[in-house]
C-alpha cells in the first residue's frame, strides 16, 4: 500500500501541486502538457522549467495562452470539465475541486450556487491547474493521503472583489476543518497569500489526514514544486513524497501488530428507489473499485421503508464514487467521513483439499502470526455444484 505525503513547506497552489508531481517523476511531463488539449483548449500550453528558490532546486509550471475571461461561471467550468477527454477519475476529481470552490464562494458571498461567478479561479490557467491535479491523483492512485498543516499567509491582497484580508473569504471557507500553521518567521513579506483557493480546494477534495512531520516508511519518490512569489530566504515550495509502508506498519496510537490505513465512508439515505435498482447500484460501485458497498434497511421519515447505501473508498477515489451516486441513484445528497482502520494483512494460498483445489484467504499480523483463514466462496460453490456435502 502506498501513501501520498504532502508537505506544505510554504503553502499550496494548483501549479505548485502539479509541478511537485512532475519533479518527483510521478507523472510524465508530456502527460501534463497534454492536459489543455484534453480540455479542448487548443491555444493553451503548459511550460515546465527548473528554478532555484532560496537555494532549493524545484520544478516551476506556467500555463500560457487562452482567453482568461471565458468560463467564469461555475456551471460553465463544470460543463467544460464534464465534456473533456480526461479519464474518469481525473475528471471526477477536478469537478469535485470546482464544486468545493463554488460552494465556498456561494457561502462567502451569500448567494446560490448557480449564481457563483468565478474570477481568478475561473481563469483558464486555474482550470488547467485543477485538471492537471486530477491527472496527478488519478495516475498515482495512493491508498492514503497525509498532509502537514497549511500556511495561509498574512496581511491583505487585492483581488477583483477589492482589497481583502488573507485569507480572503472563500479561502477561509475552504480552510474549515484544516489544521493551520503559523507563517514562518523567516518570511518577511507583510502582505502575502501562501495558499490559493485552488490549492486549498485540491487539498480539501483529497480529505487528507493532518500530521506534523514525515511518517515512517520507505520513500519511493519525492519532488518539489515552486511558486513565483519571492519569499526571500525562505523557499516558496510545495513537496510531495510517495511512500510505501508508512501506514502499513505498526499503528502509532495503539502499537497493535496490525496493518492500518485510512478510508472514506460515503453514505446516503434512499426511500424512493426500488430494491432492484439499489442492488444494481451496489454492484456497480463494487465493479468500479469500491473497497466495499452495502445497504442497511431502516424506517425513514413518514414511516416509509428506506435503505442507507454505504460505500468504503480509498481517500483518493471517494470523489468519483460520490459523483456517481449523485448521478445514478435517487438521492439528493450524500455524507462522507474519514475513518482510521486496523486490519490483518491478507494473502491467498491455493491448497489441495481431498484432491480438490481450494483457495484460502489467510489473515496475519505484521509479526507473521496467522490469526485466521477461510476458504474462498467461489471455489466452494464450484465444488458444491457437484458435491453438495463437501466440507474443507
Explain how this protein is built.
There is one protein chain. By secondary structure, the chain is α+β, with helices and mostly antiparallel strands. Helices cover 30% and strands 32% of the residues. The chain contains 11 helices and 20 strands. The strands form 7 sheets. It has a 5-stranded mixed beta sheet. The protein has a 4-stranded antiparallel beta sheet with strand order 15-16-14-17, covered by helices on one side. A hairpin with a 5-residue loop joins β15 and β16. α1 runs parallel beside α6, α5 crosses α6 and α5 packs across α8. The longest helix is centred in the N-terminal third of the chain and has 22 residues. It is globular and about 75 Å long.
What descriptive keywords fit this protein?
5-stranded mixed β-sheet; 32% strand; 4-stranded antiparallel β-sheet; 392 residues; alpha+beta; 20 strands
Estimated structural class: alpha+beta
The count of helical stretches stands at 11
How much helix is in the residues? Answer: 25-40%
- Low-confidence spans: 247-253
Q: How do the strands line up in the largest sheet?
A: 11-4-1-13-12
Overall mean pLDDT score? 88
Q: Cα distance, first to last residue?
A: 31 Å
Judging from the principal axes of the Cα atoms, what is the shape? globular
Strand percentage: 25-35%
State the major sheet: 5 strands, mixed
Radius of gyration: 24 Å
State the total count of DSSP E strands.
20
Amino acid at each position: 500500500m502506498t501513501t501520498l505525503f504532502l508537505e506544505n513547506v510554504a503553502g499550496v497552489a494548483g501549479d505548485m501541486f502539479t509541478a511537485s508531481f512532475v519533479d518527483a517523476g510521478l507523472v510524465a511531463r508530456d502527460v501534463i502538457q497534454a492536459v489543455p488539449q484534453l480540455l479542448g483548449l487548443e491555444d493553451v500550453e503548459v511550460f515546465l522549467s527548473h528554478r532555484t528558490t532560496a537555494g532549493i532546486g524545484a520544478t516551476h509550471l506556467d500555463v500560457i495562452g487562452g482567453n482568461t475571461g471565458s468560463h467564469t461561471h461555475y456551471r460553465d467550468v463544470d460543463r467544460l470539465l464534464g465534456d473533456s477527454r480526461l479519464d474518469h477519475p481525473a475528471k471526477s476529481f477536478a469537478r469535485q475541486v470546482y464544486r468545493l470552490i463554488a460552494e465556498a464562494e456561494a457561502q462567502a458571498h451569500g448567494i446560490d450556487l448557480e449564481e457563483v461567478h468565478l474570477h481568478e479561479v475561473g481563469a483558464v490557467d486555474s482550470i488547467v491547474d485543477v485538471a492537471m491535479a486530477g491527472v496527478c491523483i488519478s495516475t498515482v492512485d495512493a491508498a492514503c493521503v497525509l498532509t502537514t498543516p497549511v500556511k495561509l499567509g498574512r496581511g491583505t491582497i487585492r483581488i477583483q472583489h477589492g482589497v481583502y484580508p488573507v485569507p480572503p473569504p472563500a479561502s477561509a471557507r475552504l480552510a474549515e476543518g484544516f489544521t493551520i500553521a503559523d507563517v514562518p518567521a523567516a518570511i518577511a513579506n507583510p502582505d502575502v497569500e501562501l495558499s490559493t483557493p485552488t490549492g486549498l480546494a485540491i487539498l480539501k477534495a483529497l480529505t487528507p489526514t493532518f500530521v506534523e512531520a514525515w511518517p515512517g516508511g520507505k520513500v519511493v519518490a519525492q519532488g518539489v514544486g515552486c511558486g513565483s512569489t519571492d519569499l526571500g530566504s525562505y523557499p516558496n515550495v510545495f513537496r510531495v513524497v510517495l511512500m510505501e509502508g508508512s501506514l502499513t506498519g505498526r499503528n502509532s496510537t495503539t502499537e497493535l501488530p496490525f496493518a492500518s490505513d485510512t478510508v472514506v465512508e460515503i453514505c446516503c439515505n434512499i426511500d424512493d428507489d426500488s430494491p432492484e435498482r439499489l442492488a444494481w447500484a451496489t454492484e456497480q460501485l463494487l465493479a468500479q473499485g469500491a473497497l466495499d458497498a452495502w445497504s442497511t434497511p431502516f424506517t425513514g421519515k413518514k414511516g416509509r421503508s428506506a435503505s442507507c447505501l454505504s460505500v468504503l473508498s480509498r481517500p483518493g477515489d471517494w470523489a468519483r464514487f460520490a459523483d456517481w451516486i449523485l448521478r445514478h441513484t435517487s438521492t439528493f445528497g450524500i455524507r462522507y467521513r474519514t475513518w482510521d482502520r486496523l486490519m490483518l494483512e491478507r494473502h491467498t494460498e491455493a491448497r489441495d483439499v481431498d484432491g480438490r483445489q481450494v483457495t484460502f484467504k489467510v489473515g496475519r499480523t505484521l509479526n507473521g502470526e496467522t490469526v485466521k483463514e477461510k476458504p474462498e466462496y467461489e471455489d466452494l460453490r464450484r465444488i458444491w455444484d457437484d458435491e453438495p456435502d463437501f466440507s474443507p
